[in-house]
Amino acid sequence: MLKIAWSPKYAHPLPAGHRFPMEKYELLPEQLLYEGTIAAHNLFEPNALSEEWIVGPHKAGYLQKLTELSLTKSEIRKTGFPLSAALVEREIHIMDGSVQGCLFALKHGIAMNIAGGTHHAFSDRGEGFCLLNDIAISANYLVQKKLAKQVLVVDLDVHQGNGTAEIFKDNPAVFTFSMHGAANYPLHKETSDLDVPLPDKVGDEFYIRKLKEHLPPLLDQVEPDFIIYQCGVDVLSTDKLGRLGVSIEGCKERDRLVLELAHQHELPIMCCMGGGYSEKISHIIEAHANTYRLAQELFF
């Protein structure tokens, strides 16, 4: 059974009219339910993740400042969000959604978090719409609980997973792979275990070819026993922040490639949604929905 983390907290943490497109967190489950891709029993509501699993990937002092709402104005500005208790609560629930998603993936082969993919959160700060890093927290949970010996992070958001790279730079149990726009945010890139920077405006053929060049050999090289997949849809040609030229069908082909490899190699995979900033919300929802449709098609 496909299990998907979703909470009403995902959709309403910000003041009305804020520019960041939170509406997808409500519309995506509605679309999946309406079309019959999922039923209500596929959804589970996460709780607030225990602090013991946040500290480690994140420094205790940073978590304290976050929960006490004592970040400086400069630190708040870098996150891109107006800081509030509701926003921090949302983030802590997202962390549990990804951790629980990993546990469901160990049982069922795959699980999803409708939020998550917060790969710009560093050990000691937030950036780029990310306060805490669910990818890092989930990977650390798996390793510390001895549920996985080697985690492979496959980050295909258009922006480099800089926070994840920083957190795991000295941890060989987690291999970070990021394929992203070379000229895109962040201006200063961290060093992942494998970075594949892409030039602006590349289309489907180039994008898929590059992914095929790098991901299948990684499975032999890294020998992971768990994959965390950041499947942002800001690679789309319609994305306001993306700068690439990938179509909705190309994005679906990308997801098919990743999910098929996980299924063929019997590797549990947890998918977190990442970014998506197309002008038309329908493009964002369709591209994200394809990931869930493929999960049902390939695994169940």
Task: Name the features.
42% helix; eight-stranded parallel β-sheet; 300 residues; 10 helices; Arginase, Chain A
Summarize the helices and strands and which ones pair or pack.
Elements: E1 3-5, H1 24-35, E2 43-44, H2 51-54, H3 60-67, H4 73-79, H5 85-108, E3 110-113, H6 134-144, E4 151-155, H7 162-167, E5 174-181, E6 194-198, H8 204-222, E7 226-230, H9 248-264, E8 269-272, H10 281-299
Helix pairs in contact: 1-10, 5-6, 8-9, 9-10
Strand content: 5-15%
Q: What is the rounded distance between the termini? A: 7 Å
CATH first level: Alpha Beta
Low-pLDDT parts are none
Q: Order of strands across the widest beta sheet? A: 2-1-3-8-7-4-5-6
Q: Please tally the β strands and state the result.
A: 8
Topology order in helix (H) and strand (E) letters: EHEHHHHEHEHEEHEHEH
The CATH homologous superfamily is named Histone deacetylase domain
CATH architecture: 3-Layer(aba) Sandwich
Largest sheet descriptor: 8 strands, parallel
Mean pLDDT rating? 95
Portion of residues within helices: 40-55%
Radius of gyration, whole Å = 17 Å
DSSP helical segment count = 10
Shape: globular
Structural class: alpha/beta
Question: How many distinct domains?
Answer: 1
CATH fold name:
Arginase, Chain A
Domain Histone deacetylase: 18-288
Family: Belongs to the histone deacetylase family.
GO molecular function: histone deacetylase activity; hydrolase activity
Protein name: Deacetylase, histone deacetylase/acetoin utilization protein
